[in-house]
Amino acid sequence: MARGTIVIETDHCKGCELCTTVCPQDVLVMGDFFNARGYKPAMLVDPEGKCTGCALCAVICPDAVITVYRLPNVAKMSRAPLAVASAMAA
Q1: What is the pTM (predicted TM-score) of this model?
Q2: Tens-place pLDDT, residues 52-67
Q3: CATH level 2 (architecture), domain 3-89
Q4: CA distances in angstroms from 88 to 5, 82, 85, listed in the order given
Q5: Residue 84, CA atoms < 13 Å, CB-side half-sphere
Q6: Side-chain-side CA neighbours of residue 75 (13 Å)
């Protein structure tokens, strides 16, 4: 399964809540604090690592304050050295 994470520029988020409505993993919530502009920003709450990096939140964000990062798949990475070694031996 794909893994990812996001970074939200909380100082620029206006708290519209659109990102929280499209997140298929339900890992986005509205903060319980106010940013410098007086809005409650969105926050990533993902202690179990459920975020897949699907980018739906970033696409719907009207202020483009969400950056998405896709994390490498551990299973694929563990096979990579074997594939390289096999290719070099041939």
Answers
A1: 0.78
A2: 999 999 999 999 999 9
A3: 2-Layer Sandwich (3.30)
A4: 34, 10, 5
A5: 6
A6: 3
- Residue showing tokens 């007086």: 38
**pLDDT of 74:** 64
Which amino acid, 77?
Answer: M
Domain extents for the chain?
A: 3-89
19, 60 contact by CB (below 8 A): yes
**pLDDT category of residue 84 using cuts at 50, 70 and 90:** very low
The residue-averaged pLDDT of 39-52 equals: 96
Q: Which two tokens stand for residue 59?
A: 């696409």
Q: How many CB atoms are located within 10 Å of the residue 64 CB?
A: 10
E-state strands within 11-77: 28-30, 42-44, 66-71
Strand partners, 28: 44
